[in-house]
Every structure is written in C-alpha cells, then in structure tokens.
Design a protein that fits this description.
The chain is of the alpha+beta class. It has a domain at about 50-160 and about 455-540: 2-Layer Sandwich (Uridine Diphospho-n-acetylenolpyruvylglucosamine Reductase, domain 2), CATH 3.30.43.20. Helix content is about 55%, strand content about 5%. It contains 27 helices and eleven strands. The chain has helices at about 10-55, 70-75, 80-90, 95, 105, 110-115, 135-145, 155-160, 175-190, 190-215, 220-240, 250-255, 260-270, 275-280, 280-285, 290-320, 335-345, 345-350, 355-360, 380-405, 405-420, 430-435, 440-450, 490-495, 495-500, 550-565, 580-595; strands at about 65, 120-125, 130, 455-460, 465-470, 480, 485-490, 570, 595, 600, 610-615. The strands form four sheets. The chain has a five-stranded mixed sheet with strand order 1-2-3-7-4. Strands 5-6 form a two-stranded antiparallel ribbon. It has a two-stranded antiparallel sheet with strand order 8-11. α9 packs antiparallel against α17, α10 (about 190-215) runs antiparallel to α11 (about 220-240) and α16 crosses α17 (about 335-345). The protein starts with 11 loop residues before the first helix and ends with a strand. The model is unreliable at about 1-10 and about 345-375 (pLDDT under 50). It binds protoporphyrin IX containing FE.
Length: about 625
C-alpha cells in the first residue's frame, strides 16, 4: 500500500485547508495524550506520597509534607517562586518555610522547639528526609557504619554539587574514597611542613592586604578580600603557587595575567555555581544569557588552570626523575597526587600522556591512566573546599568583632602578652601556634563557627536495610526504614538549649544566639578549652569522613587574626557620619539571619561597610 498523506497538496488554498485539518487532528490526538500523562503522573505522585507516609507514620516522629524535594532543578525554578509567595502573602507556617532553602539559618532551634522533638521528617512524594538536631543520633549517622560495614554514604544531591569537575575525595565512596583520603590526608591534614606554609602565607597575605588598605584608605569588601587571602594560602600550601594579594577589582582588571584571570574565573564560578552544576559548560556557553555563558566559560577556565598546574608539576617530576631526585619529603598536594597517579614511574613518563592542546581541551581527569583517573579531581575539590569555607569564617569573625569591639581588645591583649615586643611577621607555626590554641583567638573561631557554621547541613543516606539509631536524653532509639536521607543540621545542634544552657544559668542568661566567645575559654587553672556535649558542635563534621582541613583552618585563622589585629582594629564605616554604630550592628545581624548556602553559608545582601584603622594603644 502506498500512503501519500505526507505529501501536502500543491494548491495554496488546499494547503491551508490541509494544515488546518492536520493541526486539528494533532491537537485532538495530543490533548488526550497530555491529559492521560498528567493523570498518570498525578496518580503516581499520590501513590508514592501515600507509600512514604505509610513508612513514616508508625514511627511517631513529627512530620511535614511538602510537594517537592530540594534538588537542583526545584532550587532554580520552584523555590524562588515559593519564596516570593511567602514574602508577598506573609506566610509563616512551617509547611511553607520548609519549602525554602536555608530555613535552618532563620530558624536555628525554633522548629525543633515547635515540634517538641530534636528530629522531624520532611515527607515528599519522592524522598523522605529526617532533619536532626539530636547529638547522639548525629554522631551515629556520621561516624557509625551501615549494614554493609561501610560508612553511610552521602546522598546524591550533596555529591553532585561538589562533583562538578568529576569524582573526588568528597564525592567518592568506599574503596575509591579510601584511595583519595590515603594520599591527601597526610599532606593537607597533618604535615607540619604544610602547616608551617599555611601560617607563613596567611601572614604574608594579610600584610599585603593591610598595606593596600593603608595606602588607599578605602573601606573593604571583606568576603571577597578574605577569599583572596585564603586562595593565596591554599595555592601556596597545596600547589606551591605564589599569589600576591590584590583586591578582586584589580585582579579582574589585570585579567590578562594568570592570577587575575584565575581569581575572576573562581569568582564567576562561585556566583553561578548552581548553573554550572546542572548543565555542562558547553551548553551554558551556547545560551543567550550572559551570566550563564560566563558561568560555562568560568568552569572551562578553571579546568584550563588546573591542567596547566598539572602539566607544570608533571614536567618537574620528569626532571627530578632524570636527575634521580626522588620525591621530596615536603611534597605538596599537587606533587603527591601527580606522583600517586603513576606519573613518576620512568616508563610512563617517557611518552607524554596527552598533548598540551588535548590537556587543555579535555577535562583534567582524562590526562591520567584509567585506573587512577579518580585521583585527578582532588586538586579541584581542595580549591573549592579549602578556600571559601575558611574565607567566610574569617570574614564572619571580623564582622562579629566589629559588632563586639570589646573582644578585639581581649584578642589584642592576648597577642601582646604572648609576643611581647617581637615582630608578629617573624612568628612561626612550630614556635607559636600552640600558645594561641586555647585562648581568645581559638574561642572567637569556635564561637563564630557555632553561630554560623560554614556548612549548614551535612547528610547521609540509609542503605537498603532498616537501621537503628540512638537518641540523646535517654529517649528510646529509633529504627528507620531503608532509603531515608538524614540531614544533620549544624545550626540546630549548636543552638540546642539542652546542650548549650550553661550550668547554673537559665537558657536566656546563656545567650545561646549571641556572640559570647568566653564560653569556650578554659576554666582558671586549666589549659583545655570547653568541650561541648559530643555531637552538639560539629562544624567540621566528625568520624572518618570529617573535614580534612580542620587543623589547616585553625592554623590559617590564628595566623590571620594575629596578622590583622596586632596593628589594626576593625570598625563599621559611619558613611560620613550618616550611620551610627547601633544602626550598622542591627544591619549586620539582620544580614546574618538571612545568610544562604551557595557552596558555603554566606551573605546574600549587602553587609554594612567596615574599615581597618590603626590600633590605638
Ligand atoms: C571553616 C572551614 C571549614 C569548614 C567549616 C569545613 C567543613 C567541612 C564539612 C562540614 C565537611 C563535610 C564532612 C561530612 O560530610 O561529614 C568537610 C569535608 C571536607 N573538607 Fe572541610 N571545612 C573547612 C575547611 C576546609 C579546608 C581548609 C580544606 C582543605 C584544605 C577542607 C577540605 C575538606 C575535604 C577534602 C572534605 C571531604 C572529606 C571526606 O569526604 O573524606 N575543608 N568540611
């Protein structure tokens, strides 16, 4: 049989008629198809929700139902709309704010107080999430093992965010993760040589920053400024790269030099991170929106810089091999990774793995032998994980010190009493870190991270078998069904009055939501800092997957504070006398209530301006 329907009649009038018939018939065909699909989808959604509720209801734990899971797509398309509705209609019920992002920053412990429980479920048709501000349970989830004898894994949404450049120490699980950790932990986490570099470079960066502000008498853009400081520190400690401190605007204006372009690309990438996560760079670069094109370009540039750094190090190892120099004991992160990926074996090095243009054109990962490809993404995760978190913690601390100048004085007195007349720029990690590790600087870091942990939530997933978890306060353990996600709420934990009300004081006297670094200081006659109830303060998480950079951050924070406050003090800028201290302080607190998680917790609005002034003695 010969069908000729696809050949439209040539006559113009007939053609119009044919088109009408065609569009009517396709509409007639598509409408029922669309309706049936929509009905099937709704039926499936209702059925899934019913199944999830059947899992949750018998447990007797409070729960809220919301219609979607906060994956990357709802984050972009749905949640901003919900946030707008909430603002316009002033909706305050938990059912609504739980649909937004970062409700935990605004709520702190209040939602747990409202439900009368330190754990509660959010039930969506697709997933059930248990939110936890119970320290015993948090410890078991983060440090305990699942049914297969392995640590509980991170849910996909957490890994996918940081897996932008491929698998790495953060996103890997099981044996692959152990490989990453074995190589990276000794270099970043423990090596005193690296920590000495961290100390030295933090002081250098701060010296350069202060010199700049001294000359310019400008007010500073603190979050960006400290991102530059910590980028300089991780670049030197992890990659032996020296980056002089310059403000972001100057770095961008000097975009032609490598450092400027590098900082610009990281800045654009961080500002548009969610887009870079949901779409590959080549798609973003084709879209008609400037911001998205820039995000795609920045992700590509970032790979390009990593490839260059990799190539440089490969060449150095090749040279070392030829001159029979083995790996030096002070090898940095990049060198350890490149060597661990088999590149220091003479035979492999004879032939280049990829030409320069291939390296530049491909993701960094493809430059390595297949079995070791997973190691290649570690440098990227170290830049991402190791610079924003600590930069924002330092900037948050600076704002707290601007709001509470009395603690600047305490800090400065501590520095003077330890250093006497000696020059702080001549100090070293080995000789000085311990002296500062249980005083005001350490207390200010702990209190800053208690009020504003760099990472608001960390999460784990229960595998295919039910698991039982302990609960604090003598409550009965709870057995959770399979495939549930458990989100550990750092802020809920560090504001939980059961663990933060001080002995002999009421909850309000303990000022749990306020900046009181003295709560961490050792009691008189003792040298150990206050140790909170296990699990109630975990900004670096705990267990085998806890933060690799905890000591790194502590050293960086200490040297930075030393460098800043030995000679300088921080103040709110009065904007030519138009803003009082109280107004600036209120503005600052209001901004802090509205911090959002991009990669780390950070301001979304404008923080009040601050300025560095010579310390009065
Ligand atoms: C204030 C600073 C920092 C904070 C608050 C912080 C916090 C965290 C948290 C909460 C985790 C997740 C652990 C989990 O899911 O259980 C983590 C993981 C990690 N952090 Fe940090 N971090 C900081 C600084 C750093 C620095 C400076 C580095 C590197 C130089 C670093 C490297 C890592 C790595 C590699 C992981 C993944 C560990 C693994 O999965 O085995 N972090 N961090």
């Amino acid at each position: 049989m010969n069908f000729t329907v696809s050949d439209p009649p040539r006559d113009k009038g007939l053609s119009k008629e044919w088109n009408t018939i065609f569009s009517q018939s396709s509409a007639a065909m598509l409408t029922p198809l669309f309706l049936t699909t929509a009905l099937l989808f709704m039926g499936h959604t209702c059925y899934s929700l019913h199944t999830q509720l059947c899992k949750v209801r018998p447990l007797g734990i409070p729960y809220f139902v919301i219609p979607f899971y906060p994956g990357p797509l709802p984050r972009i398309f749905l949640i901003p709309f919900v946030q707008l509705l909430i603002k316009v209609f002033g909706l305050t019920h938990p059912q609504f704010f739980l649909m937004t992002l970062d409700w935990q920053v605004r709520q702190r412990y209040e939602i747990y107080r409202l439900t009368g429980s330190d754990i509660f479920f959010i039930v969506t048709p697709w997933k059930v999430v248990l939110h936890v501000a119970d320290p015993d349970m948090a410890v078991e989830v983060l440090a305990g093992k699942g049914g297969n004898g392995e640590l509980y894994t991170r849910p996909e949404i957490f890994s996918s965010m940081l897996g932008l450049f491929g698998e790495n120490v953060f996103t890997a699980e099981g044996a692959v993760w152990r490989d990453h950790r074995k190589i990276t932990a000794p270099v970043i986490g423990k090596s005193w040589r690296r920590l000495s570099v961290v100390w030295e470079e933090s002081l250098t960066q701060i010296q350069q920053m202060i010199r700049y502000y001294d000359k310019q008498e400008a007010t500073n853009a603190s979050y960006r400024d400290f991102r530059r400081v910590t980028l300089g520190v991780i670049a030197r400690a992890g990659f032996s790269k020296v980056m002089e401190w310059v403000p972001l605007a100057t770095a961008i204006a000097n975009g032609r030099d490598d450092e400027g372009s590098y900082q610009k690309c990281l800045h654009v990438l961080f500002e548009n991170f969610i887009w870079a996560v949901i779409a590959p760079s080549w798609i973003l670069e084709m879209l008609p929106f400037k911001a998205l094109r820039e995000a795609g370009g920045a992700a590509n540039d970032f790979r390009f810089f990593m490839n260059e750094w990799f190539e440089e190090r490969k060449t150095k190892i090749e040279l070392d091999n030829k001159t029979t120099l083995g790996p030096s004991s002070g090898a940095d992160l990049m060198e350890s990774l490149v060597r661990s990926s088999g590149l220091d074996k003479g035979s492999t090095l004879e032939a280049p793995l990829l030409s320069k243009s291939e390296v530049i054109g491909n993701a960094f990962v493809q430059a390595l032998p297949f079995s070791l490809q997973h190691l290649a993404n570690s440098p990227q995760i170290f830049i991402l994980a190791g610079h924003e978190t600590s930069a924002h913690t330092i900037a948050n601390a600076i704002y707290f010190l601007a709001m509470y100048p009395e603690y600047q004085v305490k800090l400065q007195e501590e520095v003077d009493s330890i250093l006497g007349d000696s020059d702080h720029n001549q100090t070293s990690y080995e000789a000085h870190f311990d002296a500062f590790s249980s005083g005001w600087i350490a207390a200010i870091m702990c209190e800053t991270l208690r009020l504003l942990p760099g990472v608001a939530t960390t999460a784990r997933q229960i595998g295919p078998t039910p698991r039982t978890f302990p609960r604090a306060g003598g409550q009965r353990p709870v057995t959770l069904p399979p495939d549930i996600e458990i989100w550990i709420q750092m802020i809920g934990l560090s504001h939980n009055p059961k663990y933060w009300t001080q002995p002999g004081k009421t909850e309000s006297q303990s000022a749990i939501s306020e900046f009181r670094p003295e709560r961490w200081l050792p009691k008189s006659g003792d040298n150990t800092m206050f140790k909170p109830y296990n699990g109630s303060y975990i900004p670096f998480s705990i267990g085998a997957r806890g933060c690799l950079g905890k000591k790194f951050t502590h050293v960086e924070f200490t040297a930075t504070m030393l460098g800043l406050f030995r000679e300088m003090s921080v103040e709110f800028d009065s904007c030519g006398g138009r803003k009082t201290f109280e107004e600036a302080r209120r503005e600052c607190l209001a901004q802090m209530e509205n911090f959002e998680s991009k990669i780390t917790l950070q301001p979304t609005g404008k923080m009040p301006r601050i300025k560095w002034v010579k310390r009065r003695r």
